[in-house]
Design a protein that fits this description.
The structure is a single chain. By secondary structure, the chain is α/β, with parallel strands linked by helices. It contains five helices and five strands, in the order βαβαβαβαβα. It has a five-stranded parallel beta sheet with strand order 2-1-3-4-5, sandwiched between helices. β1, α1 and β2 form a beta-alpha-beta unit. α2 runs parallel beside α3. The longest helix is centred in the last third of the chain and has 18 residues. It is globular, with a radius of gyration of 13 Å.
């Protein structure tokens, strides 16, 4: 069972993502801002297989948070989510095949597909 960290300051979206991914068999940890997400991740960086990060959260930059997470865990996958286009090319260059962007609003099925693709890519590279 994959452990996924979801960080989003929109409580209803955070809950929806957590419930849906939980129903699919993933273990989910939630954070309402970047600082909490960083603390939860860095407490056990190698436990997480993927993170879903809102691009605009209080408590820190998604780009800096994701970059630090990717360095701390060489197998981690990052899904950056936002309602507007976000340039994740620097993250993608630093961690090829481990970073993708997901445009909000997305359906639960789109989220499940993104998580599934990222975890499958991760397994292929091991």
């Amino acid at each position: 069972m994959a452990l996924i960290l979801i960080a989003d300051d929109e409580a209803s979206l955070l809950k929806m993502m957590s419930v849906y991914l939980g129903r699919l068999g993933y273990e989910v940890t939630m954070a309402g801002d970047a600082g909490i997400a960083a603390a939860k991740f860095h407490a056990a960086p190698h436990d997480f297989e993927a993170v879903v990060l809102d691009a605009t959260m209080p408590g820190g930059s998604m780009q800096e948070l994701a970059a630090g997470m990717l360095v701390s865990s060489p197998r981690l996958c990052v899904i950056a989510a936002s309602g507007y286009p976000v340039d994740v090319s620097e993250l993608q260059a630093a961690a090829p095949g481990r970073v993708m962007f997901l445009l909000k609003p997305f359906s639960p099925a789109m989220l499940a597909s993104a998580v599934g693709r990222m975890l499958a890519t991760q397994k292929e590279s091991l």
